[in-house]
Structures are given as C-alpha cells and as structure tokens.
Write a structure and sequence with these properties.
The protein is mainly β and 118 residues long. The protein is built from no helices and eleven strands. Strands 2, 4, 5, 6, 9, 10 and 11 form a seven-stranded mixed sheet that branches. It has a four-stranded antiparallel sheet with strand order 1-3-8-7, with no helix packed on it.
Length: 118
C-alpha cells in the first residue's frame, strides 16, 4: 500500500503563515517529484508549486515570493511554507507525488483545508 497524507491546514488571518506537510509512505523506491495543487470552491484544481528529485522548483506566479516548497528525502516528506497569506489563497490544498514503486506512478493525498480570513 502507498499512502500520501497532507497535514497542517487551518484557519489564519490575512498576512499570517502556515506550513503544510505531505508524507508519502509504503513500498517506495524513490520519489521523482512532489507538488502542491489547490482547488477553491467552484474552481479547477491548479498547480501551486513543485519540486523535483534534484531540488529544482517551480511556483505559480500568484504565490511566487510568498510560498516555499522543500523536501526531506529521508522522511519522504514535502513541505509548503506559506507566508503573507491572502484571502484568495483559500482552498483545499492537495499533495501529488510521482513515486517509483514497481513502476512510476502518480499518487494524490486527500487534501487539507486552508482558510484565510480578511
């Protein structure tokens, strides 16, 4: 069994910070990439940030300079540090992992709610 689990969501005021965590577990040989997506009510899911096996990073323009993605290979965990949060950041945040088990596959977490009040 392979599991991807997010944690760290919550309610914060505008300008505040949250740190999301995503832990992958199971029969994992290696992690090629991990990414954070978000989906607001009535909106499509969008890519927020991703990090590769070589620690190359990508950020959506809307979060660049405010969010930082990082990973801990020993713990099979990726983090999303979110600073200077805005109400428009309110969404369910999902972790996606490209994992090598017996093959290369894509795995999703269940999501964690982030709510930013004005």
């Amino acid at each position: 069994q392979v599991h991807v689990v997010e944690s760290g969501g919550g309610l914060v005021q505008a300008g505040g910070s949250l740190r999301l965590s995503c832990a992958a577990s199971g029969s994992i040989r290696s992690i090629n990439a991990m990414a954070w997506y978000r989906q607001a009510p009535g909106k499509e899911r969008e890519l927020v940030a991703k990090i590769t096996e070589n620690n190359n990073t990508y950020y959506a323009d809307a979060v660049k300079g405010r969010f930082t993605i990082s990973r801990d290979n020993a713990k099979n965990t990726v983090y999303l540090q979110m600073n200077s949060l805005k109400p428009e950041d309110t969404a369910v945040y999902y972790c996606n992992a490209i994992l090598v088990t017996s093959y290369v596959g894509s795995y999703w977490g269940q999501g964690t709610q982030v709510t930013v009040s004005s």
